[in-house]
Design brief:
heterodimer; A: alpha/beta; four-stranded antiparallel beta sheet; 9 helices; 12 strands; disordered N terminus; B: 67% helix
Amino acid sequence: MTDLTNNPTEVQPGGLMVRAEGVRKSYGLVEVLKGIDLEVRQGEVFCLIGPSGSGKSTFLRCINHLEKVNAGRLWVDGDLVGYRQKGDKLYELKDREVAMKRRDIGMVFQRFNLFPHMTAMDNVIEAPVQVKGESKAAARERGMALLERVGLADKAKNYPSQLSGGQQQRVAIARALAMKPKLMLFDEPTSALDPELVGDVLDVMRGLAEEGMTMIVVTHEMGFAREVGDALVFMDGGVVVEAGHPREVLGNPQHDRTKAFLSKVL
Amino acid sequence: MNSLHKGPEATPGRHEAIKAVPVRHPGRWVGAAVILLLAAMLIHAIVTVPAFKWDLVGHYLFDDRILHGLVVTLELTALAMVMGVLGGILLAVMRLSPNPLLSGTAWVYIWVFRGTPVLVQLVFWNFLGVLWARLSIGIPFGPSFWSQETNVLIPTFVAALLGLGLNEAAYMAEIVRGGIQSVDEGQHEASQALGMSRFDTMRRIILPQAMRVIIPPTGNETISMLKTTSLVSVIALEELFRAGQNIYSRNFQSIPLLIVVSLWYLFLTSILTIGQYYIERHYARGSNRALPPTPLQRMRGLFQGLRSKPAPKPADAGVHGGGGEGGGLG
């Protein structure tokens, strides 16, 4: 199989892809993240679990600067997210610079967020053509390969409203992959799907993991986390409660809150 | 499936196509008769009253002066709407910008132009030459690099265009803003996450989707603009209404000429209504799984049906582009 993930070779395997130190985020007076510390390694499948409102989605959105961090530091591939540091002073990045960084980070949303006025193929080639200036022909060819890979080559000309939820989410994954990201963020990718459609999406994600894509996955799919995950973090109330290998945390939780949560979802 | 239908009343006849007696609507027949009667009375009144002078209406309908006015009206409508739509998009984007300078400027513009009558604005643009005899570009209170006489720079047609177009931009700005805000927030996030710039996001993702909300009121604005151009007659620009006025000020046949003018306005608005229907369809792409046929397609289908009656329609399958795989749609 061709290497569609196209991991940059200069990053040595096992190196740090994401590092968070004391990351805090509040909306008005409500603090949703109360100091998150964690590290995601290159090539790792990193699962974030926890009850709704625990801040896991917010943290994910901080990584590509869809949300601004209020305190602490967050690095992606060695670069500070959203800021440039000179001496001990921080300078906000311009919109263009932020957009530049986002090219390398793919994101998949709970509600798919496909562009409804474009066909599946046009969704996939939109960013490569508009952002990277690829030729349409070249982008289409690669787009077809990507759609084939998520099992939807025959749906290239369909609009999102003509696709099932599972198909839409797979197109969304193909769309994110089209930018050849070095990191993929998944924000509850299967939560809005009918149970019978979840499997297809998870299969695609499993394939990505096997190819060595670095993935951060906010999920309620404990089976997926246990089977595919390399690391897992349980968050609650804006803090990391427990972290470790998925099999350890899910099989032998140490903390009471983790136990209580897992007893409800497993 | 079988078990559901295995009741005591299950008979072979249950699977036949239903042939029921439709509900009767006697009230509709009575109502239609009343309306027909009233319509006949109205037509009788219009046709027989001599003041309408239908022969004159026919005579002036294609008069050169009227047709020339018609062209001016069309030009004015088209150009003012182009100005209004482009200006409106610009103002709406400014208004939604996080930059307070831009949003503030747009707010003041909309406040002034929506808050004063368009008739006053038209007269103002026309009298600009009285206020400032020359317009120049230069440093305020300093030297000027370029200057021109106002009345040369802004002839009546341009004054009319400015008056209508700038006013329209203020209204269009609010329509466009409503359209932009109707697009799901997730669309912004998805395009940002792909690394698209704010400009590209607006141009490629948000505005095309906002169009579905923007188009219907814009159609109304265009139809309204077509009629509003008649206000321009006050600054003596010879458009359709003014052309009619000029003729009846000499021959005093005001009613027939007003009918001529009204017929033309009615004809043009009808055409615009048809155009609006097709533009709305275009922007409904992706929102409806399959668009209903247009009246034209329906008529063509009817004729084909009359000419030959093949049992199934094989052409239907192509519309859906493959369709979904059994129940996969959701």
